[in-house]
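User: Please predict structures.

Assistant: First:
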Amino acid sequence: MSKRVARAVDIGFGYTKVAQSMIDDVHGLRALSFPSFPSPVASNTGFATDVMDRLHFVTVDIDGARYNVGPDAMTLASGRAVRTATDLFFSSPQYQALYLGAIAYMDLPKGQSTIHQMSLGLPTTVWANETLRSQLKERMRGTFEVPVPDSGETRRITVEEVSIYPQVLGLLVSISSQDGDMDVVAKQNNLVIDVGFGTLLWMVTKGFKQQMGRTSGTQGGVSSMLKAVARSLGNGLQNDPRTLERIDDALRLDQPLQVDGQTIDLARCRAQADAQALTHVQELIESIGNTNDLDNIFLGGGGMHLYERILQDTFKGRVIRRPVTEPQFANLNGLQDLAEQRL
């Protein structure tokens, strides 16, 4: 009898995170991340075959339109390509292309072609839309023909059941599970903050149940900080994904920023980014109201390093709980945990 399989995928505005295994005994999970940047396939790529063979991507078909998806998809994109960062993203062909690409990169046991339980994460603001959630569940379920990475072949994979959760719930499950105190957290009030590329999301829970009136988010996240810096550097740069990526690397690694052949003052850039982030944190505080009843504050997401200091200043004297593993995969770990529980 073949082993039943659970997998999780977290498709964000900035990056798509994919579970490639079940969770092991020490909470380990093999995972992959690639830019949420499906690039339309041009009729002539202009790349030599041996160069293309060294790039990591798959090509998926969505209603006759073909997209390159994967770690090197941005390399294949035109210089005019931009990321979509609105709620329209979740009903777009590009979103579906990322989902099929994610399935293609999910390693399955030998001879297995069925994912029995799939967990999908959505921003809290999008998850609240029951109609969209229902439509997504139908689109994500079924049998799909997807490429086999690095082979030139395709295979058919069936997804039997799909469960959709707020992304931040995955973060709460992941950190409390890794810290070994899920039973305690289940009896407490918790604030969970997820810093994504296109959003800052938050959720207050009683145990693992949402307090809906204190759960929300704001468009922006890391991308708004990067765009604020880019606007100060030159007209139109805020819509150039490669410039934004360069700014992100400089801020994250604390390295000099090179734009248009010039070295930019990183301290000035950080001040501009912090000013933008502070407006989002103020929205968070206004949304959740009194913070005296919070027993725990959880923080994660690929952009948490850009908000961490501001949040620590905001919640002076409070311990902010962070993932012990790679922050970018914290939501995914929790979503995978939820998928395995349902399995």
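Second:
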Amino acid sequence: MLKLTGLHISYGKISAVKGIDLEVAPGEIVTLIGSNGAGKTSILKSISGIIPAVSGSILFEGREIKNMKAYEVTALGIIHVPEGRGIFPNLTAMENLEMGGYLKKNAFVRDKIDEVFQLFPRLKERRKQRAGTFSGGEQQMLAIGRGLVADPRMMLLDEPSLGLAPIIVQNIFNIIRQLNEEKKITILLVEQNANLALRVSRRGYILETGSMVKDGLSSSLMNDDGVRKAYLGG
């Protein structure tokens, strides 16, 4: 479904991503793990058209999308839920959700918002409240919900557990699994909590200072001594 080949990303003279290869098959959850500054967020931003790649290829279902505009990538069904949630704090929850469907017809958007409310009842309760007053967990639900209104075929999730209490994190990861299994959404997940990320995903990639150093089935990576010492607490 998604294939990156020899992808290079730079910020001026600083090379952030150095020729990485990565694949995500339809229906998979694939996780990308690495320390802060490894290049994980840059990869997601390049896929979604937020920042340009210097060289290499980004294929989505065989189509080259490298350096497409962000709205063009969105129209293909690739939806990016960014690190930090990226909600509109001065808009209500309902208005935030409606923004997710800006490329869709009104009747379709209403139906998708109803689906989001079934998934996140708390958002329905607070649909008229400004999003900036929400807790961190509620804001993350809203960010994911807004992405779902766009009817994604693939979601790029960047640090969905960031800053959340453990019980909320577990709920968010349960939702991620549900989106994959029930909604059939393919997911590329960037996550600092490597234990949870590997448990929920089928395969994983390990990124260090912009280079891919290891990949494989998540179950194998969890039993890898090097991965355990570096990312799983021993």
